[in-house]
Write a structure and sequence with these properties.
By secondary structure, the protein is α+β, with helices and mostly antiparallel strands. Among the domains are: 226-318, no CATH class; 381-564, no CATH class; 568-609 and 635-690, Nuclear Transport Factor 2, Chain: A (Roll), CATH 3.10.450; 915-980. The chain is 43% helix and 17% strand. A hairpin with a 5-residue loop joins strand 21 and strand 22 (652-656). Helix 2 runs antiparallel to helix 4 (110-130). The longest helix has 35 residues, at 12-46.
């Protein structure tokens, strides 16, 4: 027998050093963790959402403890029993001799090893289980849907709330049994209860009993798994390319076999339990073999044969009833059951233009064209910054927002923005800790410009800021204009000062002067008090900033403002919601508030198609001033909550918006009092709610397939739609939806709505136009204008190509898109004109080159059928498309004679190329044309000179001169063509 190998030991000094290092690591980890938890608690306490904090913490702790104790304890118990009933005598063999040294090493430390195994497994299981805290809360507080599954006749709540929890329990059950089985096998092997290479009996009686029990439990759990698999068929992806959910094969060739396997697995479990007394593994081994064979034959092979030889040859007919289920369930899950489908423009061919017919529609629809949005909030951030920044410490988000206001009895949509604190814009000397965190603490002001107009009488195309400047003046003036919470405020601020102390915080310039300023001291309810030494020490550790302890700016009256982004605040206050990626500001009851949309989601709605949320909500503008949603799999979504965040004090308020959503009602049971009743919303707040963009993106993606009623047509995909790519961006990403104020076909007034065009599948032709109403009276009503399927209506990409190739547009693009400036296309809007057809409107901006350049509206492009209008104003462009006088009808029908006579549309054949200007300022035969070319050269040179010198005013004047020169050149060219 080989002598046992001695176990290496550590010196006393090494043990002390390692012990000290371990204690320090544990101490620092504990301090950091406790500090993070405490700072979190302080935030919840400040916002009055401590119920959310404690409910989540207690639920996580409960699941951690139960899963940890169950996993670690039961596995440790199994290992202990295997050791406890080890054989006292082990026959001598080479195998046992080799194992003896391991036994001698483990014997003195068996308690420590067993405890370590239990703790490690318990921690791992606990951390895994606590992440499923929402699954437990939804199961514990489940609410009936009031609708049953068509196959099993069970309320849908079972699938959404109960089934995921049962699967979670089953998963932990399998893990515990497998870990216990592995631990028992290893223990029996090391201590002689299992002898693989020793002649004679391989298992002791104790080992046989224990392994039989564990294998019996595993087989019993397998029987439960087969039973749950029956219900899991509603999530089948066997026909995932066509539809989601149980299909013909699942119901007719798999449902019954799953039931049979339940009893076979249960019999297998009984055979293992019987082995405790029978003492022969042949019976359970035979039962296990039978289970494997049957599961392969009736659970795998038979369904595959049915799918291949019965379903596939006539899948469109066999799957039809199940496709109907999938269509109905998917529409229900995504809120698309009550859509108003309108057969639209059925009498037109897509290219023909009858000016008289369109004129009548324009006269009847007096609100769509006058409200056509020419200001693109995705383009004009730099323009707002250039004209309304005031100081470098202020800034605007990369993407502005669209909202509507009623001014003097008239509802208009506005491009709106909040003048926020922009920490990234601070100069080097402004970026010290004192300045960054105690002086420059907030933004100030609300800015708004009507979305359908620019400053009258200017060539520059500037927005008409009807609410502007500091102090704020104009149409929409908040009573409290200071902004301490916003999308650009990612850093913390320390505010507040003792009574009588001089104000420290920069508020605004005094009288517009760049040398004098007005300071203030924050007096709002927001922020966490840090007057005590303990709080100051806490935040010093949390932010790793000693100034919390040393700076005089942190005093007894100080508060810390953190988690200042509105979206982050709502996500923190309501962790059970997904929050829309585009918050928007509004002036409500005299205060600036951020309005956000919260979604309840699930991935367990039966028969509904699964979608990747992040992928479905991404478009060409995602990440540009908006936040992307997590790429989680969902198949149910509701806009259940409207949330507001006060821009001054950070108050977060959640309102129940969808009062029929069972998922929200379930969470409201789990978090009572967190979500306020819908009745608590003021009328003014309700007047500013919008249909949310991310929900609309998900719904339009679903509509591309699930607008079809006939299951055979659905299977064939003959009427499938597709989201067009954004034609104004050089990208294959989806075109974003757009908010417009327009009059729907059949309505007698305009409404604020979110819209999108949809193409035919893998084609650029337009198939439909989708709109969702944001009007309080019709909120959420989705209308789909279905165009004739055999008519080649132009889609957004085709319209954009027509614009780019137009003989009037190309020369201007050459001038605008040069070394000194860039042409920037705005949003390509699709507007329904009565029942006559769809009108495309697109603004064209010019941005001067360089960091100080900003876009200004220069032209408006219009398309209807095969006609293109291109002019300085929308009215002039409409005249080119529909004939002289049509623009006046669109803008003000009261001034148009009743006979409605209009001129013939101006031809815009893109194949007719324009006469290009002479290169290098050469001369032409026409003196007026030659002078116009010279003026163009002079204007371009003046623009270059102004940009090199950094003279902002000169750049603006040069752009105006350039615009005048372009207009003169076009007029001269038209005169020359007419004379020829």
């Amino acid at each position: 027998m080989r002598p046992p190998v001695p176990v290496p030991t550590l010196s006393r000094r090494a043990k002390l050093v390692l012990g000290a290092v371990a204690v320090l690591l544990v101490l620092f980890t504990a301090i950091g963790t406790l500090t993070n938890v405490y700072v979190d608690y302080l935030w919840f306490d400040e916002t009055d959402y401590t119920d959310v904090f404690w409910t989540e913490l207690q639920t996580r702790a409960l699941l951690f403890a139960v899963a940890g104790v169950a996993t670690g304890g039961l596995v440790a118990l199994a290992v202990y029993l295997a050791y406890r009933f080890r054989p006292t005598f082990r026959p001598m063999s080479l195998e046992q001799q080799n194992l003896e040294r391991y036994r001698q090493s483990l014997e003195p430390r068996r308690g420590l090893v067993l405890t370590a195994v239990a703790v490690v497994l318990g921690l791992f299981a606990g951390f895994t289980a606590q992440g499923s805290w929402q699954t437990w809360l939804m199961y514990r507080n489940s609410t009936n849907f009031g609708r049953t599954d068509p196959e099993f006749g069970i309320d849908i709540s079972f699938f959404v709330f109960d089934y995921p929890f049962y699967r979670l329990l089953l998963g932990f059950g399998f893990a515990i049994v497998l870990l216990a089985l592995i631990g028992s096998l290893l223990t029996h092997y090391v201590f002689g209860g299992l002898r693989l290479q020793t002649p004679g009996q391989k298992l002791t009686a104790a080992a046989r009993v224990q392994l039989s029990v564990l294998l019996g439990l595993f087989a019993a759990l397998k029987a439960v798994a087969y039973w749950l698999d029956r219900y899991g068929l509603v999530y089948s992806d066997r026909s995932e390319e066509i539809f989601t959910g149980a299909g013909y094969t699942d119901i007719n060739a798999l449902l019954v076999p799953k039931t049979i396997l339940v009893f076979v697995a249960a019999g297998c479990a009984l055979a293992f339990f019987a082995n405790i007394f029978v003492r022969n593994f042949l019976l359970p081994a035979g039962a296990l073999g039978l289970l494997l064979v049957i599961s392969l034959v009736i659970g795998v092979a038979y369904p595959a044969v049915v799918q291949q030889f019965v379903v596939k040859p006539s899948a469109n007919e066999k799957e039809a009833p199940y496709i109907e289920r999938a269509i109905e369930a998917t529409r229900d899950a995504y809120g698309l059951s009550d859509i108003d489908y309108v057969q639209y423009a059925q009498e037109t061919t897509g290219d023909e233009v009858d000016p008289q017919v369109v004129l009548r529609e324009l006269r009847n629809d007096t609100e769509t064209i006058p409200n056509a949005r020419l200001l693109d909030p995705n383009v004009l951030a730099d323009t707002f910054t250039a004209r309304q920044q005031i100081r470098n410490v202020y800034g605007f988000p990369e993407k502005l927002d669209i909202d509507r206001y009623e001014i003097d009895g008239e509802i208009r949509d506005y491009v709106v923005a909040v003048r926020e604190l922009n920490s990234a814009g601070l100069s080097e000397n402004q970026s010290t800790w004192i300045n960054r965190h105690t002086v420059y603490t907030h933004g100030n002001g609300f800015v708004a410009a009507p979305a359908n107009e620019v400053v009258a009488g200017t060539e520059g195309g500037e927005p008409n800021f009807t609410t502007r400047d500091l102090p704020v003046r104009g149409e929409i003036v908040p009573e409290e204009s200071r902004v301490y919470y916003g999308e650009l405020m990612l850093d913390y601020s320390v505010v507040g000062a003792p009574e009588g102390a001089a104000p420290r915080e920069f508020d605004q310039p005094e009288g517009g002067s760049d040398e004098r300023q007005i300071n203030n001291t924050y007096s709002g309810e927001g922020g966490v008090d840090v007057g005590s030494f303990f709080r100051q020490l806490t935040f010093a550790i949390y932010y790793r900033e000693r100034n919390f302890l040393l700076s005089s700016a942190v005093n007894d009256e100080s508060k810390v403002l953190y988690v200042r982004d509105p979206r982050n605040r709502v996500e923190k206050a309501a962790p059970f919601l997904e929050v829309d990626g585009d918050p928007y500001p509004a002036v409500i009851d005299g205060r600036i508030v951020w309005i956000l949309d919260g979604y309840t989601t699930s991935d367990s709605f039966p028969y509904a198609e699964q979608m990747e949320l992040g992928e479905a909500t991404s478009d060409a503008l995602t990440g540009t001033g908006t936040a992307a949603l997590p790429n989680e799999t969902v198949n149910y979504i509701r806009n259940s909550v409207k949330a507001t965040v006060d821009a001054y004090d950070g108050t977060v308020t959640l309102y129940e918006w969808d009062t029929e959503d069972p998922v929200l009602r379930t969470y409201m049971k789990a978090f009572p009092g967190v979500v306020q009743p819908k009745e608590e919303m003021s009328e003014e707040l309700i007047s500013h709610v919008r249909y949310p963009e991310d929900l609309f993106k998900v719904q339009r993606a679903i509509l591309t397939r699930y607008h079809v009623d006939d299951p055979i047509a659905f299977y064939e995909g003959s009427d499938r739609w597709q989201i067009p790519s954004d034609p104004t961006q050089n990208t294959d990403q989806d075109q974003p939806p757009y908010y417009i104020l327009a009059q729907r076909p059949g309505d007698d007034r305009a409404s604020f709505q979110l819209t999108s065009a949809l193409n035919a599948f893998r084609r650029d032709n337009l198939s439909s136009f989708v709109s969702a109403s944001s009007d309080p009276e019709t909120y959420g009503q989705i209308q789909v204008l279905q165009l004739p399927g055999n008519t080649p209506f132009r889609g957004p990409q085709q319209v954009q190509n027509a614009f780019l190739s137009n003989n009037q547009v190309r020369p201007d693009l050459t001038l605008f898109d040069s070394e000194n400036s860039d042409a920037v296309f705005g949003n390509l809007l699709t507007l329904p004109i009565g029942d006559a057809g769809l009108l495309y409107v697109e603004p064209l901006y010019v941005r001067a080159a360089g960091e100080s350049g900003f876009p200004l509206l220069q032209r408006v492009l219009v398309n209807f059928g095969d006609r293109i209008g291109y002019a300085n104003t929308l009215s002039e462009a409409l005249d080119q498309v529909f004939g002289a006088g049509a623009g006046e009808v669109a803008v003000d029908s009261d001034n148009v004679p009743d006979d409605g006579d209009v001129g013939e549309p101006e031809p815009t054949d893109p194949a007719d190329p324009p006469t290009p200007p002479p290169a290098g300022g050469g001369t032409t035969a026409d003196p007026d044309l030659a002078q116009a070319v010279a003026n163009l050269d002079a204007a371009l040179q003046a623009l270059r000179t102004a940009q090199r010198s950094g003279d902002f005013a000169a750049q603006g004047q040069a752009l105006e001169d350039l615009q005048a020169a372009v207009d003169a050149y076009q007029a001269a060219q038209q005169a020359a063509d007419g004379g020829g």
